[in-house]
Each structure stands twice: as structure tokens, then as C-alpha cells.
Amino acid sequence: MNRYFTRKILIYALTFFLAVTIDWMIPRFMPGDPIQNMLSRANVNADAAQVMYTYYAHAFQLDLPIWQQYLNFWGALFRGDLGISIYLFPTPVAKVLMRAVPYDLFLLLPAILLSWWAGNNFGAFAARSKWLDNTVSPIGYILSATPYMWLGIFLAWLLGIVLNIFPIAGAYSFDLQPSFSWKFIGSVLQHWFLPFFSLFLVMFGGWAIGMRNMVIYELEADYSHYLEALGAPQRLVRKYAFQNGILPQITGLALQLGVIVAGALVTEVVFSYPGIGYLLLAAIQNQDYFLIQGCFLFIIIGVLIANFAIDIIYILVDPRTRRGMTGETA
Amino acid sequence: MSLQITDLKIYYQTLRGEVQALESTTFSMADGEIMGLAGESGCGKTTLGHSLIYMKPPMKYMGGQVLLDGEELPIWDMDRMNEFRFKKISIIPQYAMNAMNPTRKIGKMISELLGSRGVDFKAILPELERRLGLVKLSTSVLDMYPIELSGGMKQRMVMVLSTLLNPSLLIADEITSALDVASQKAVAEMLVEFRNQGYCKSAIVITHDISILYQIADSILIMYAGQLAEKASTETIIHAPRHPYTKLLISSLPEIGIKSTEKRLTGIPGNPPLLLNPPVGCRFRERCPVAFEKCTEAPPFIEVEPGHHIACWKEGETNA
User: What average pLDDT does the structure give for chain A?
Assistant: First the structure.
């Protein structure tokens, strides 16, 4: 048991190190110069620009040798300092990210959990009804095969522009200030619905198809046939099939939850929803090294924690992994 | 009579037509009889065994009657059969190695299965533990997952589970096929012991391994290409078979003490016919050394001596 966890933690530590290194490299290998970018927006004259460039390059420590920058980056990371955003100067990156995270959680947590729950139940249900399987499963395939961007734009067009039921941009109405009033909450929910619903639809289709296939596979497994041959009622056979079929779905769920902090980039871009995904796009467009690093760091940590959680959950729910684990230590 | 089958006919529905896997089958089994059911692959022995308990499509019921202890089994009706399954008729499947839910502890699975059949697990637990002892399994297996058991242990566990409600008829499908020779013998002897203890009144042992049947079966039924060929006591089948197919089958078995250099083992020339469109009449006639014109009519399965049935015009006539 201990050996298992020590090994796992070592692997995760190594993965973290490599991923963060790549995270640090990516923005620095992009063509272009963030400070030049910022100054060109400021429209200052050439001499002043030269002075300001030197000042900012020093302030962001971009004038140091590249290895020194790398070491400083790790040092700052351990102090919890993610740097200052260049694009939103002088807000610290950590603060920028913290402002965006609640929107991601609010949008993605319900979308992922609800679609997982509904998709699994529906998929298992479809697996045992030929009629339902023949009519609804193709819809599931179409939904999950549709390029998400297309579906998002279509929904925005249909429900937002043609029917004019839902707003299509922002997290709340632009003429409101955040407050705890019914009006504001209503506006937030109204703006939340379209991105949520489009995500829900796509993920629902994916979960339902996966679960349908798993349940059909389990119902054809030997143990199901044996139970039926011993006269077990369909209720019991299906219960077992569902419980075994859901195991791979748990992995899928944990992976989805892991990238939750990454936001749903395309959704947030299509609906201008101010989560991390939206932020990441802005950061890349403005070559904001520190903000890009910060966004990716969030994603890395999220994925690693989620994977670690799957490892533990699997030990708890699937005796076969448990046995493999104790077999290693024995 | 424990089991009485009349004119049972089972086909498989396939896209290319009906596979005539079991032609009008009529035979009976005595109380307490262990009947071996033997024949080469695809001769319909598993079809016969499964049709009695679990007839799922593409298996198709084409007619016939099955009486178990004088009561008719509604084998064509998946739902009505549930009442009989496990309690009256039970099966040790060919896939005993994978027969248990991998994510449930064995004891829990048994208790859930029994609960769903309206049997009190607590009340039956002492008996279950006693029988586990009989097959040399510790009671701690109930607290294990199937994956923690070896193949032989799983086989014995399934054997105990399948017979737990003392069914009248047990169908044992290839129960020794996946085991090594030592375990084969042990499992076969346990089956006899189970019968002797009354855990199952009678049993059909489906196998292609005639040497196992020689050790445990009271009688042997030989099948060929979906038809019954011969049924007689084990001694008779081994030492004095009368159907040409049985004769060739028995003579192709190796004997102890005879070196293959002195006497080469002979097989039966030719292959069994395809059952999608089988020849009319006796299906063995194309490989049969004694076939004659009359064999284009299907021979009846008649009793030539008490307890000895064969389906062959040549052999049947000499006695009739």
C-alpha cells in the first residue's frame, strides 16, 4: 500500500515538473514580444518607448539570461507568486485567475455532473429498449459528433437571435453591477443558460453513448448469462450491468472534472463568458507570458489532482485494481 | 422417470437460414441417472443442454415436449421458465471461470441472487458452508472476489452455487474442459458425490471427453450432427457399441498399453455435414461404412435391448 502510493506520488511529481517546465517554455518560444506589444498600444514616442521598454523588461525580469528566468520562475512558484499580468498590468496573475475561476465552476460543474448523471441513466435505459435505442441513440451520435463550435453558434443564433429568449454574451447584463439582488441573480442565470445548455447537450450525448455500449457489453457478459440461467430477475442482472458499466465512466468524469479549471475554451469564446478559457485566449492574443503560464498551471494541477483522485476512487470501487495493488506489494 | 423429452426440435435463426441444430429428439432419463452427452464439436450437445434451461435467441423452439418429474417445462417461454430455473433445473455453464460478477464478493452475490429468488440466505448459509467444505473450499471464499480464486476453485464454487437449491436436474456443460487432468478427476468425482448426497437428482454431463464419462456416467448418449445416435449404459457404449458412428468414435480413442507404433490410431474419414442444409435421412450416412439405400430415410431412435437405444437401419433391423 505504502509502496504503491510512494510510487504514484513520485510519478505525479515528475509529471508536474515536466509539465510546468513545458508550460514555462511555451509562451517564451512564441514569436513576438509582450512588452513591445504593450508599448505599441500605449502609443508613446520612440525615445520614451526605449526607456519604458528597458524599465518594463527589468520589472518583468525579461532582461535576465534565460536559465536565470527559469530558476526564478520556480522560486516564485514555490512562494505562490505567479507574477504580474502584462495584459492587465498591474494586476497579479493570481488575482486575475481567481476572478475567473468562479465562473468556470458555476458553468462547468453543473454541466458536467448533470450530463454525467443523466447520460449514464439514459444510456443504460436505452441499452435495454430496442425502440429507444433505434430512435434516440442516433441523436446522441449526432450531438456528440457535431463540432461544438457549430452547435454553440447554432444555439446562440436560434435561441438568442431568432427567438430572442436568451442573451448571447457576457456573464450578466452589461448595465448591472454585481450585487445580491434578485435582478442581478436573474441576469446571471439568464446569461448562464445558453453556455450551460450547449455544453450539457454535447456531453450528454457522449455519456449516453458510452454507457449504452458498456451496458450492452455487460449484459452479454458471461456472469449476466449465468444469473439469467439461474432465474435471477432482470432487475438484478441490470443492476450488476449498470454498476460494472459505470466504472469507465467514472474515469471519464474525473478527467472532465480535472480540466474544469481550464474552462471550456470554445464555449467561453462563443458566448463571451469570462472564465479561464476566455482569459487564456486573451492572454495568448496579448502574449501575456505570466497569464498564459498561470492558466496552464491551473490546468496542470487540475488534471493531476483529478488523475490522482481516479487512482484512489478506482481502488475503492473496483476490487480488481485493489487486488493488483496488493499483489504488487506482496 | 426424471426427464422425458419428446420430439424436441431446436433450430438457430441466422441470416442465411435456419440451422437445424437439434432434430426431433426423444429420450428419457431415470431418477438418479448421470447421463453423459458426447459427440464432436457442433453436434448439438450444448444446444440440447441449454435449450432445457435457457433458450435465448437465436435459439428457436420448433416443437417438442420436455417433462421434468412429470411436469412440463415451458422452455420456449423465457419468463415462465424463471420459476423452474435454479430450483428445479440448474446449470454449471461452460464459462464457469467468468460466471461470477467480478465486482461483487462471492458471498454478497450469492445472497443477492438468492434474495431475488425469495430464498433466505441466512437460513441456507450453514448448508452452503458445509458444501464448500465438501468441495474443499474454505468458507472464507465467500468473503473474496472471484478474481482471487484460481480456475479450479471458481469451477468448484460455481458447482456448489448451481446446486445449492437441490435441483432435480443439473446440466454440467464441459465442466472439466478447462482443468488439468488431476482437477478433472476431482471435479468429476465431486459431481458423483453431489448426486449421491442428493444435491441434484440427476445430471446431464456434456463433454467431448469420453474417458471422463467412463469414470462417472451411468449412461452415455452419443449425438451426431443434431441427431441422436445411440444411448446405452456406459459399459455398453464403451465395450459393445452398435451404432456405426459410436463404434468408430470409440475405436478412435487411445488405449493404455498399445503403442502407436504398433497400431496407429484411426480417425473417422470425412467431416460432419453443415447443419444449415443437412442431408436428408441419416446424417452420418456419407461417412458410414455400412450405409445403404434405406439410409436416405431418417432412422427412428428405437430400443433394441432394454436401456439400449440406437438410430440405425442396419443395426435396428437385425434385432427388430
Answer: 83
